[in-house]
Write a structure and sequence with these properties.
The complex is a heterodimer.
Chain A: H1 20-37, E1 43-52, H2 59-70, E2 79-85, E3 88-91, E4 97-99, E5 115-119, E6 123-131
Parallel strand pairs in A: 1-2
Antiparallel strand pairs in A: 1-6, 3-4, 3-5
Chain B: E1 2-9, H1 12-28, E2 31-37, H2 43-53, E3 60-66, H3 71-77, E4 83-87, H4 96-103, E5 113-117, E6 134-140, H5 147-150, H6 152-157, E7 160-164, H7 176-186, E8 191-194, H8 203-225
Parallel strand pairs in B: 2-5, 2-6, 3-4, 3-5, 6-7, 7-8
The chains are: A alpha+beta, B alpha/beta.
Bound molecules: guanosine-5'-triphosphate (GTP), magnesium ion and zinc ion.
């Protein structure tokens, strides 16, 4: 029977559909498997993934999904290390970079409202650790 | 122990396919838009009104995604333009591979506008690039003004927000100003158009937005093919 994970995050999960993060977890595992092929003598012990505030991905659900996916497989020892990346804005006037909280785009340095998002959209694999 | 820096997108495979689609659209001057909203916010109703208003000879096609059923494609096929249903069979979003597969037997060079109606879901579709020129998010007046703050990802990534079902404003406790303000807190440059598919209010502005974007797609085509 297919594993059905429930998540507050993906509305379909409540209707018995697998949650969104399970698909993301599967993509991460595919990257691990691809990297493992390049290290036939070693084994991957850890994969680091950056999750931006704006990525639309729930970290707890992803962690859980990954653990379910690798359980009782040769990939079970792989640890998923999630790093949360907050939303960062850069001021269009004074170039000051600041963490955006409470969706307030105003530059705390000069008061300018026109600021650009330069961080927080990440859904990236950052690194892997291999025991050789 | 050996640490390898990877720096690649988790959804790299999807991204590669999406970029290929984007390049094909660009070369042919096709405008592709991706409509995203919670279930029932009025994507299909808007497309019915949109297709109805198009000239008979318009080179427009629609791909519509749903978990199950061909209902939306049937509703949209009535207008005489090519429409194809993508049933995902449980996947809560469309991805670039599904789009590529369903475009395979259509001639893209015969199109000016490709409209994708995503699976009704405010979360998951925002992670999957379909190669579109613009994501458009629909928020209906029956959903609550706080949705942009609860689901910021899609409101951030969308270029345009359509505030739908505004004919219901007198009957629902929905403060449209607060909804727009919340959306702009997440995405200050977000364009917003109020529409009603029932009364037709705002549809002229929406059609104008589409027309302007199509002209931009064509203009890019001319600059791209101009002799060097
Ligand atoms: N009052 C009112 N009702 C609307 C409007 N637009 C859509 N509806 C109704 O809302 C319901 C859902 O509309 P759809 O167009 O099917 O919504 P959808 O976003 O395509 O739904 P899914 O594809 O299932 O996610 C239908 O009963 C429509 O008649 C509108 O502008 N005003
Ligand atoms: Mg629909
Ligand atoms: Zn500043």
């Amino acid at each position: 029977m297919a594993v059905v994970l429930r998540s507050r995050h993906c509305p379909f999960a409540d209707n018995g559909f697998p949650m969104h993060e399970l698909g993301i977890a599967a993509s991460i595992l595919e990257s691990v498997q691809a990297e493992a092929l390049r290290h036939p003598a070693g084994r991957i012990t850890k994969v680091g993934v950056k999750i931006g505030e704006l990525s639309g991905v729930d970290r707890d659900a992803l962690q859980f999904g990954f653990e379910v996916l690798v359980k009782d497989t040769e990939w079970e020892p792989v640890v998923l290390d999630l790093e949360y990346i907050p939303r960062v804005q850069r001021c269009s006037k004074c170039a000051h970079e600041f963490r955006m909280t409470e969706f307030d785009p105003q530059c705390p340095q000069c008061g300018e409202f026109l600021t650009d998002c330069i961080g927080g959209e990440e859904l990236d694999i950052a690194y892997m650790e291999v025991d050789e | 122990m050996n640490r390898i820096e990877v720096e690649k997108k988790v959804l790299n495979e999807n991204q590669v396919l999406a970029e290929q689609l984007r390049e094909r659209y660009r070369q042919l001057g096709v405008l592709c838009i991706n409509l995203i909203s919670a279930p029932g916010s009025g994507k299909t109703a808007l497309l019915e009104r949109t297709l109805q208003r198009m000239d008979k000879g318009s080179r427009v096609a629609v791909l519509t995604g749903d978990l199950q059923t061909e209902n939306d494609a049937k509703r949209l096929a009535k207008f005489g333009f090519p429409v194809k249903q993508i049933t995902t069979g449980g996947t809560c979003h469309l991805d670039a591979r599904m789009i590529g597969k369903h475009l395979a037997d259509w001639k893209l060079e015969d199109l000016d506008l490709l409209i994708v109606e995503n699976v009704g879901n405010l979360v998951c579709p925002s992670s999957y690039d379909l190669g579109e020129d613009a994501k458009i998010v629909l928020l209906s007046t029956s959903e609550g003004e706080d949705k942009p703050l609860k689901y910021p990802s899609i409101f951030f990534k969308a270029e345009l927000m359509l505030l739908t079902k505004i004919d219901l404003l007198p009957y629902v406790p929905f403060n449209a100003d607060v909804a727009r303000e919340n959306a702009r807190r997440v995405h200050p440059q977000l364009e917003i158009i109020d529409v009603s598919s029932t009364t037709g209010e705002g549809l002229d502005r929406w059609m104008e937005w589409l027309r302007a974007r199509q002209e931009r797609a064509k203009a890019k085509l001319h600059t791209a093919t101009a002799p060097h």
